[in-house]
C-alpha cells in the first residue's frame, strides 16, 4: 500500500531556512493551527464589542494604545484579505473542510477588523449614528458604539442573500447608519467577502461534489 500523501502546506508557511522546506508553524497539525486562528479571530470580534473610550486622565495613554491598535488591526485586515486570496487559489489542494474553515475565519476576521477601524475613524471625523427602531419609525442619533458598528456590518452581510431575508425573519433592525463614503465602501467590501469569499467557495465545493457523485453513463 502506498503511504498517504502529506497534508498540503500553504506557500505562506514554506521556507528555505529549514530542511523540510516548511516553517515550524506550518508543521503543526491543521486542527491546531485553525484552533489558534479561530481564537485570534474571536478575540478580535470581542474587542469590537466594548467601548474603547477612556477618561481624560488617560488620554495620552489612550492615544498611544490607539495608534498601536490601529496598526495591529490593519495587519489583521491584510491577513484576512490574504486568507481569502489563498483560500480561492488553494481550494483544490486544501480540501473542503479546511477551505470552509479558512473562508469563515477570513470573513470573521475581516468583519471584526473593519468594525474596529471604522470606530477608530471617528477620530478623523467619520460619524456613524446609532439607530433605534420603534414600530416602523427608525431614529438615529448619537455616536454608535463599537458593538453597533460591528452590528451594522453584520446586518449588511446578512442581507447579501435577499431570498433568505435573514434580517426580516429575525426581526433584526439596523443598529447604525452613516452617510460617509468610507463606511459605504466598508459595507461593500463586507458584502463582497460574503458573496465571493463564502458563498462562492461553497458553490464551487458543491459543484465539485455534485460532479464527483454523479453516476457515469456508459454508452
List the helices and strands and how they pair.
Elements: H1 30-47, H2 59-89, H3 91-94, H4 96-120, E1 129-134, E2 137-143, H5 146-158, H6 166-169, E3 176-177, H7 181-213
Antiparallel strand pairs: 1-2, 1-3
User: Looking across the biggest beta sheet, what order are the strands in?
Assistant: 2-1-3
Give the tally of structural domains. Answer: 1
Beginning-to-end CA distance, first to last residue: 33 Å
Largest sheet: 3 strands, antiparallel
Shape: globular
Structural class: mainly alpha
- Multimer state: single chain
Strand proportion, as a percent range, falls in 5-15%
In short:
The chain is mainly alpha-helical and 219 residues long. It is 58% helix and 7% strand.
List keywords for this structure.
219 residues, mainly alpha, 3-stranded antiparallel beta sheet, 7 helices, 58% helix, globular
Amino acid at each position: 500500500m502506498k503511504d498517504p500523501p502529506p497534508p498540503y502546506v500553504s506557500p505562506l508557511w514554506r521556507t528555505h531556512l529549514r530542511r523540510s522546506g516548511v516553517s515550524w508553524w506550518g508543521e503543526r497539525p491543521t486542527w491546531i493551527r485553525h484552533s489558534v486562528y479561530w481564537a485570534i479571530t474571536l478575540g478580535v470580534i470581542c474587542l469590537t464589542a466594548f467601548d474603547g473610550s477612556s477618561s481624560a486622565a488617560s488620554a495620552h495613554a489612550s492615544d498611544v494604545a490607539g495608534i498601536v491598535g490601529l496598526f495591529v488591526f490593519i495587519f489583521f485586515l491584510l491577513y484576512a484579505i490574504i486568507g481569502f486570496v489563498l483560500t480561492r487559489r488553494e481550494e483544490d489542494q486544501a480540501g473542503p473542510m479546511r477551505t470552509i474553515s479558512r473562508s469563515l475565519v477570513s470573513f470573521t476576521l475581516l468583519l471584526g477588523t473593519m468594525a474596529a477601524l471604522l470606530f477608530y475613524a471617528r477620530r478623523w471625523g467619520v460619524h456613524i449614528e446609532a439607530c433605534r427602531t420603534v414600530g416602523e419609525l427608525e431614529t438615529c442619533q448619537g455616536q454608535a458604539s463599537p458593538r453597533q458598528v460591528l452590528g451594522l456590518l453584520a446586518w449588511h452581510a446578512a442581507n447579501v442573500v435577499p431570498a433568505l431575508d435573514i434580517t426580516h425573519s429575525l426581526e433584526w433592525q439596523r443598529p447604525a447608519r452613516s452617510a460617509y463614503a468610507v463606511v459605504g465602501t466598508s459595507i461593500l467590501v463586507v458584502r463582497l467577502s460574503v458573496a465571493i469569499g463564502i458563498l462562492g467557495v461553497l458553490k464551487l465545493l458543491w459543484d465539485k461534489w455534485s460532479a464527483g457523485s454523479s453516476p457515469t453513463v456508459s454508452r
